[in-house]
Known about the structure:
This protein is of the alpha+beta class and 442 residues long. It has nine helices and 24 strands. Strand 11 (122-126) and strand 12 (129-133) form a beta hairpin. Helix 5 (334-346) packs across helix 6 (365-382) and helix 6 (365-382) packs across helix 7. The longest helix is centred in the C-terminal third of the chain and has 18 residues, at 365-382. Zinc ion (ZN) binds next to helix 4.
Amino acid sequence: MSVAPGVSRRPYFPERGNEGYWVEHYELSLDYRVGAGRLRASAVISAFASRSPSLPAFTLDLSSSLRVSGVLVDGEPARYTHRGDKLRITPARPLHEGTLFAVDVRYGGDPRPLTSRWGGLGWDRLTDGVIVAGQPTGAPSWFPCNDDPADKATYRVTVTTGSAYEVVANGRLADRRRAASTTTWVYEQPQPMATYLASVQIGRYQSAEVPGPVPQRLVHPARLASRVRADFARQPAMIALFSDLFGPYPFAGYTVVVTADDLEIPVEAQGMSIFGANHVDGRRGEERLIAHELAHQWFGNSLTLEDWRDIWLHEGFAAYAEWLWSQASGEETADALAARWHRRLAALPQDFTLADPGARRLFDDRVYKRGALTLHALRRAIGDEAFFALLREWTATYQHGGVTTERFTRLAARHAATSLDDLFAEWLHTERLPASLTHRTV
Ligand SMILES: [Zn+2]
């Protein structure tokens, strides 16, 4: 990837991400004491050197509140410094362009959330357990990484902790071994994953399997069992609807974790979503959120933005999925919801463009709703058949890959009989909200 000198290719988080290599695989081994909040860990990172002709030194993102005790590159001790959440490593010999190399980082300490404008991000302690909420830049709170959503990699995560706790991480549970007082859990995520979607959840949970074409797992404190069962009862129907409209569910399974603590908002992770105790009431009171988080498995986790400015490709689509579920489940139609939200947005400040809203508006509800309205306007312009064919081709073409707004508009143009240039210019690149949801085509 080449950019002009002095121009960051990560304008929202210029301090994150690193040049000169691409990660292929993360192998994380974590030994964690829940009561003391102490971590002892190693990360073995396989990466390709991409700098020509060679890479004399490189950096990884890692919270400065963790302590590094040793770094090996291809088995040999390497020099390193660690400050400002950057681990700078100088291998014994430069790494030639195109070679695969392994970095082994030993580290530990008391992992804690990284501060951000959205509050603490990353590894956080619950009353009796752990939650990881990585979006957008929390991953370095618990492992050294190339914290760039464009650099997706496979993972194997091993967690050893007290046997009273259930541990959930992304992907398939490959092994579980019990020792005297601890249990070791091994999870494998063979589909590429962005760092912010990597997650570990630890709690005194029980776990129930929900069989079906997409195996689901509900993980929660025993006291919330009946509420969770009631609130997630229609999730299999949601998966069926979204698979029909968006294309096949992109992962081997889907795990929902409900924490014993309340959470401000649910948390998305690859193959997994995390809800707070306050999000379950036994009366499907937050079903909208269940649909929203599920939709992120297609839009966000399988298809991941390469730059945070394209957040609408995640949140606009997930918000629209809420409306599709609402209509399919016999509640308010997508048309009615679109009309209502169009009126509401028209009364709010229109001071950003959807395709580049600015870092501080990443999680602004206006971005979510304007994104959903853009999709509804597009659907009206090209018709239902072309619209859903477009979504299915979108998820198939970029499955487990990276996406941009330009790639979406280019693919959409191929599903339209007339030019969509004006529609996208008005909805994506103009601050003022279009006056109508029906676009006049010429
Ligand atoms: Zn979302």
